[in-house]
Amino acid sequence: xxxxxxxxxxxxxxxxxxxxxxxxxxxxxxxxxxxxxxxxxxxxxxxxxxxxxxxxxxxxxxxxxxxxxxxxxxxxxxxxxxxxxxxxxxxxxxxxxxxxxxxxxxxxxxxxxxxxxxxxxxxxxxxxxxxxxxxxxxxxxxxxxxxxxxxxxxx
Length: 155
Hints:
By secondary structure, this protein is of the alpha/beta class. The protein has helices at 17-29, 45-54, 73-86, 99-106, 109-133, and strands spanning 7-9, 34-37, 60-63, 66-67, 91-96, 144-148, 152-154. Strands 1, 2, 3, 4, 5, 6 and 7 form a seven-stranded mixed sheet that branches. Helix 1 (17-29) links the parallel strand 1 and strand 2 (34-37). Helix 4 runs antiparallel to helix 5. 27% of the residues are buried.
């Protein structure tokens, strides 16, 4: 996986669907190695990554980040493994939590949900670490995965 040159980090939610392919192709044509985008409020990051990978030839596409609060760990891993298999050496899964931004946008309701979810974090984190390790069923990990809440950590 070539992450040696500069990449672009872009919020794509405000971009019209028809313009996404042209944007990704232009990034690739300009010589950037990767296109990173966050999961915000508009699109599923795995469906978007699949689209961007399909319309480019060598651009690495990464989630920066896919929100751990929005899906079960096994669902996130399954989506990442599918993209990694379909587009070898071109997908990077970045996972994290955007709880501060959500709390700011959604008000106090998210605080109660965060407390409830925090009780579930430890078991979920262990499942993600195990699944990402590639140790299950003799699996081989063929993608990069980064996790972040208050910084980046390679998993």
